[in-house]
Structures are given as structure tokens and as C-alpha cells.
Design brief:
Low-confidence stretches: none
Distance between the termini: 46 Å
Number of strands: 5
Radius of gyration: 15 Å
Mean pLDDT: 96
Helix content: 25-40%
């Protein structure tokens, strides 16, 4: 059974006809070609599928589109404004915080949410915000330093 979903994604309203059992992650990647939101563990444990729902990190793998209608969904594609990168994207690039890049969208969006609610987080607060976002490449030090640098510049 298919349903028409009306979603607000990256400040644009889209209507999509999709099966009711498809997850938000599947709709984003397969139907809307927003492949920056990554498909990771299938269980919501790695954080690669993170999007922002009304500014709060949420796991797209665990959500159904019908449940998020009426909420603002921000994906990594909507983080930059035009060709101008968000300060977090700049600091991740400068400090080499993204290696393979698979975890990067979830890390960036989660850090963005943190800085919106707490513009001057300490290291402990950054670590707590990023808990549940798994990175297998960096060991987190450069990621945390990139968030700290962005907070200084924000």
C-alpha cells in the first residue's frame, strides 16, 4: 500500500508517493536521491542516518515518513547555504576530521544542533552530544577539535 507523504526537507516541501512501510532513510536515499544521509547498521546504533527534525538529531532509519510530516527535516545537503559551507563543514575539512566520511553527515548535523542550543560547549558536552555516533577511522579527537574550533568561530 502506497501513501502520499508531504515532507519539508531542507526548507522545500516535497510530496512523495511511497509504500507506508518505507523508512525516512529509504525515502530520502531511494526516492529523493538525498544520498548524503548514510545507511549504516540497520539498527540505529551507529548514527550514520542522522538528520535533524525541527533542529533535533533523529535517526532516519528508525522513522516512518508519516510520523514526521509537518516537521522540518534537515539533511547534510541542506547544511550549507548555496555554495557557502557551514562553519562546521569548514572546520571538519581544515582539521581532517572526516576521513572515510561515512559518519561525517551524522557528526556534522549533531554538532550543528549542539551549537544552536549551546554555542560554547565544553569538551565534555561535545562528547556527550556525539555519543552514539560511531566513527571507525579517526578516534574522535579531530572531530571534537573541529567542533570546538567551530564553536570559537560561531
Amino acid at each position: 500500500m502506497k501513501h502520499v507523504f508531504r515532507l519539508c526537507i531542507n526548507s522545500a516541501v516535497v510530496e512523495i508517493l511511497a509504500p507506508v512501510h518505507k523508512t525516512l532513510l529509504e525515502v530520502l536515499r531511494e526516492d529523493l536521491q538525498l544520498t548524503g544521509t548514510k545507511h549504516g547498521c540497520e539498527l540505529g546504533e551507529c548514527g550514520t542516518c542522522t538528520v535533524l527534525l525541527d533542529g533535533t538529531p533523529a535517526l532516519a532509519r528508525l522513522l516512518l515518513p508519516i510520523a514526521v510530516q509537518g516537521q522540518e527535516i534537515l539533511t547534510i545537503k541542506g547544511m550549507a547555504i548555496g555554495s557557502t559551507l557551514h562553519e562546521l563543514q569548514n572546520t571538519f575539512s581544515e582539521l581532517g576530521a572526516a576521513q572515510c566520511g561515512y559518519c561525517t553527515p551524522g557528526m556534522l548535523l549533531t554538532a550543528m544542533s549542539l551549537l544552536r542550543t549551546n554555542p560554547r560547549p565544553d569538551r565534555q558536552q561535545i562528547q556527550e552530544a556525539l555519543a552514539g555516533k560511531l566513527c571507525r577511522c579517526t578516534g574522535y579527537v579531530k572531530i571534537i577539535e573541529a567542533v570546538e574550533l567551530a564553536a570559537q568561530r560561531y
